[in-house]
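Q: what does this look like with flavin-adenine dinucleotide bound?
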Amino acid sequence: MQEEYDIIVAGSGVAGSLAAAVAAKDGLKVLLVDKNSENEPGKKTNWGWVCGDAVAKSHLDFVTKRIGLSFSEPELDHKVEGVVAYSPDMQSKFPFDGEGFILDRPEFVRKLKNFALKNGAEYLPEFDVEAPIVKDNFIVGISGKDKNMKNKEIKAKLVIDALGISTNLRRKLPDNPYIDKTIDVEDLESTGRYIYEFDVEKDDPKFYDQKYAIIHLNQNIAPGGYGWVFPKSKHGRVNIGIGVQRASLIKRNNKIGKNDTLQSLMDEYVKFIPILKNPKLYNKDNNGKGYWSVSVRRQLECLVYNGYMGAGDSMAMPNPISAGGIGPALVAGILAGENAARAVREKDVSMKNLWKYNLDFNAEYGNKTAGMEVFRIYLQSLNNDIINYGFRNFLTDKEAVDLTYGRIPELSISTKVKMVLKGVANINAFNNLRYAVDEMKVFNKLYAVYPKTPDNFVEWKQKVISEMNKVKERFEPNPV
Ligand SMILES: Cc1cc2nc3c(=O)[nH]c(=O)nc-3n(C[C@H](O)[C@H](O)[C@H](O)COP(=O)(O)OP(=O)(O)OC[C@H]3O[C@@H](n4cnc5c(N)ncnc54)[C@H](O)[C@@H]3O)c2cc1C
């Protein structure tokens, strides 16, 4: 007999577990499905829960305020006062992102998944989702393989796609002009991440600081991305990694005659951090070492289709500058769960009735991400010398922090500095920064008039794409 659910949530990571918890809360029949074993929700790949695991306190507070779920140890492994980004020459730094936590990620997602079960969701582990079931242009369920590798179909009125970046639900939607099925490879960062323990001889705030999450911008070490060293609760344990953009890595290798890969750069980065003496993998939950991808574009322009919603990495939600995706996944999980429950109760799961989720997500988080994508593309066009110079001369601390939050700096103080800028390349880079800031304003204006219904959406999306193409044409990756 075919069982039918109100809502299927595919993927029990951060976004999916919260969406299921919220949707199940007032009595709907919700099924949360994941390919992992029961005790490993949110494990992205056989490599583990590959992530930097840093999350801003403000995002955790959003969850507590909105649905009453609060966090403590063990899932909050370590508190930090903020993030500090260093220039390639290590001579300048910008602090940003305020108070936050480094998570024990497996514990964090277990807690979210258990919260979903407590709220009444059913859990189906070891189910590999393969495709959406489509009927009359509506998504009406999922198909996949159960733990005995048997093909199975499960029906529902609505499916929430929280399968992460590798989602095969979004990729297999019917052809439509609303949700893209693919993401440009240059909008992805390939990442490596280790959790290491090491002999602590001395702290060095440029490389390891128990109070701060440290980021190293360096186009040679992490072309088109950055390296990070995030402290864990035990003194002498860190989450360390790099992200690189494919085109930047290829250009860098060609220009300097090297053949580096993500793996070789990761190992170089570990050597670059002088305080890491005798590093050994810390392999709790078999989560010590892994590689995965994260997107750094604006979230997909539309997050809903008939009988379908997406939340988290499946919809490219991470912050385009920092690649922080836990926060937006928490926000989207809650908003998707709320809107899904509403639509099922209203007996209307059409794209039109789900549209409010687009508006809710944009109001809470998504309005600013296209602007941040512009800044990320601009940054990827600068070599180390210009980044060093720019850190010292282009922006004040406040302006830099504003940019990382998607707020647009006026460049007022910097404008004065411009009068004394030295070197053609630097002056060009500053003028390009002004162009980038103007483009950020264009995107913020476009998102301020995000269509209230699906009616004018396709035209609006076209404007967003052509404007972003202009930015990409102007700023090509140029790491060395
Ligand atoms: C190396 C790295 C470092 C990062 N650092 C940070 C950071 O410091 N801070 C931050 O905020 N963000 C960071 N991010 C981004 C962050 O990890 C993601 O944004 C976040 O995990 C998104 O959560 P999600 O629930 O959308 O997806 P995921 O966490 O990817 O969860 C998806 C779930 O779906 C399941 N699934 C996938 N496919 C199937 C299938 N076919 N069938 C059944 N189940 C399936 C998976 O098993 C998993 O449980 C980083 C990402 C990477 C790769």
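Residues 343 and 353 are 7 Å apart (CA to CA). The longest strand covers residues 188-199.
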